């Protein structure tokens, strides 16, 4: 197996993302015909899985941000309600 592909695959398997230079080197080896079809398939599949995983994390972060935003809105409304309820109960001297 090509050392370039092997290094990139190992990184992808362990959840790391190879740098742009490493990915470019992998594609150069693929285009040069220096890797087998199986190696090429393994690399491309692992790369796609890694990209999907990153998208899932980004989507989860976005959903959490939306939930936090909604919670802050509700807290703010509750505080305003309590403040205005307290103001209406204050008697003039």
Structural write-up:
The chain is mostly helical and 93 residues long. The chain has one domain: Transferase, Pyrimidine Nucleoside Phosphorylase, Chain A, domain 3. Helices cover 81% and strands 0% of the residues. It contains three helices and no strands. It has helices at residues 3-13, 20-31, 37-88. Helix 1 packs parallel to helix 3. The chain is rod-shaped, with a radius of gyration of 27 Å. The termini are far apart. The relative contact order is 0.09.
Briefly summarize what is shown.
The protein has helices at 3-13, 20-31, 37-88.
Fill in the keyword field for this structure.
single chain, 93 residues, mainly alpha, Transferase, Pyrimidine Nucleoside Phosphorylase, Chain A, domain 3, 81% helix
Provide the fold topology.
Blueprint: H1 3-13, H2 20-31, H3 37-88
Helix pairs in contact: 1-3
**Oligomer class:** single chain
> How many angstroms separate the termini?
88 Å
Average the pLDDT over all residues and give the rounded result: 84
- Rough outline: rod-shaped
Helical amount: over 70%
Number of strands: 0
Helix segment tally: 3
CATH class: Mainly Alpha
CATH topology: Transferase, Pyrimidine Nucleoside Phosphorylase, Chain A, domain 3
Structural class: mainly alpha
Low-confidence stretches: none
Number of domains: 1
Sketch the major β-sheet.
none
Provide the CATH architecture: Up-down Bundle
Order of helices and strands: HHH
């Amino acid at each position: 197996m090509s050392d370039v592909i092997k290094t990139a695959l190992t990184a992808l398997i362990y959840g790391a993302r190879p740098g742009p230079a490493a990915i470019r080197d992998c594609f150069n080896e693929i285009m040069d015909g220096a890797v087998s079809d199986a190696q090429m398939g393994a690399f491309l599949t692992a790369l796609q899985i890694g990209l999907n995983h990153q998208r899932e994390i980004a989507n989860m972060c976005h959903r959490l941000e939306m939930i936090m935003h909604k919670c802050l809105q509700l807290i703010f409304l509750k505080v305003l309600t309590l403040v205005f309820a307290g103001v209406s109960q204050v008697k003039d001297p």
